[in-house]
Amino acid sequence: DCCAKALNKFDILVDGSVCNQVRRSTPFTVSNFICNAHGSKIRILSRSNPAEPVTICEFMAYGIQEF
């Protein structure tokens, strides 16, 4: 695969604040990442090459509603 290493270094941001920094030495196809944050906007920012867009085939965010 030409692009398997593209997502080895990235940050997960919620409403502009970093909630997880992912640094992997091996490629992956499916994974879960914990992000203990509150907000409405999620951003995935590549640290390998921040100027290049990141291609993600499927993305799902799970959360709970606070009362």
Contiguous low-pLDDT stretches (5 residues minimum) are: none
Q: What is the distance, rounded to the nearest whole angstrom, between the alpha carbons of the first and last residues?
A: 45 Å
Number of domains: 1
Question: If you average the pLDDT, what whole number results?
Answer: 84
Widest beta sheet: strand line-up: 2-1-3
SSE ordering: EEE
Give the class from helix and strand content and strand pairing: mainly beta
Measured by DSSP, the beta-strand proportion falls in 25-35%
* Radius of gyration, in angstroms, nearest whole number: 13 Å
Number of helices: 0
Largest beta-sheet characterization? 3 strands, antiparallel
**What spatial form do the alpha-carbon principal axes imply?**
globular
Strand segment count? 3
The percent range for helix content is: under 10%
Walk me through what this model shows.
The protein has a 3-stranded antiparallel sheet, with no helix packed on it. It has no helices and 3 strands. The protein has one domain (1-62). Strand 1 and strand 2 (17-23) form a beta hairpin. Helices cover 0% and strands 27% of the residues. With 67 residues, the chain is mainly beta.
